[in-house]
Specification:
The structure is a single chain. A hairpin with a 4-residue loop joins β9 and β10 (100-105). The chain is mostly beta strands. The protein has one helix at residues 12-16, and strands spanning 2-4, 7-9, 22-23, 36-42, 48-51, 57-60, 70-76, 79-84, 90-95, 100-105, 117-121, 127-131, 137-139, 148-150, 161-167. It is 3% helix and 42% strand. It has a single domain (22-167), classed as Trefoil (Acidic Fibroblast Growth Factor, subunit A) (Trefoil).
């Protein structure tokens, strides 16, 4: 970790793994009642991170519907929880034993680190989305397939995401 003023940045993991990552600047949620939503499109497949009512998270073609809107809720220290607008009571989490990614109802008795993510810049305006629990990267597996969190691989386009945001 590097401490800059009162900001702590996680860099040790990227250096230890030999990855050339640059940390993305902190994303913030506006202080007003408005929420900043993000669409996350995978670089390899061009499809969008999509939540469903049953908790499954896949990548699908663009629909513009709430299932593809994600709210990055700042948890401090460079970590975020990702809530899906389609089902705002649920957040993106990794099941550590299986690398599976799903949405689930937030619960303080569960391991909070598996429900938190941090972001690092990739090439050409992309980002890597790392799970705080074990630092795996959010990984697309092709249209309609379940998204996973797998060990990060520098330059792997299935782990690189473009983000666009809007306030709603």
């Amino acid at each position: 970790m590097i401490k800059v003023g009162k900001t702590v940045r996680r860099v040790a993991i990227g250096v230890a793994a030999g990855l050339a990552l640059t940390l993305a600047p902190a994303m913030t949620t506006p202080a007003s009642a408005a929420v900043t939503f993000r669409y996350l499109a995978n670089q390899q497949y061009g499809d969008y991170l999509t939540g469903s009512l049953n908790g499954t998270v896949t990548t699908e073609t663009y629909t513009g519907l709430g299932a593809q809107w994600w709210d990055f809720m700042n948890k401090g220290g460079g970590y975020y929880t990702l809530y899906n607008a389609h089902e705002p009571s649920k957040l993106l989490a990794e099941w550590l034993e299986t690398w599976a990614v799903a949405t689930r109802t937030a619960n303080p008795t569960w391991a909070a680190h598996t429900e938190q993510w941090w972001v690092a810049y990739g090439p050409n305006g992309t980002i890597y989305i790392h799970n705080r629990g074990n630092n795996n990267c959010l990984t697309a597996k092709g249209r309609g397939n379940a998204v996973r969190a797998e060990p990060c691989r520098t330059g792997d386009r299935s782990q690189l995401w473009y983000q666009t945001s809007w306030t709603g």
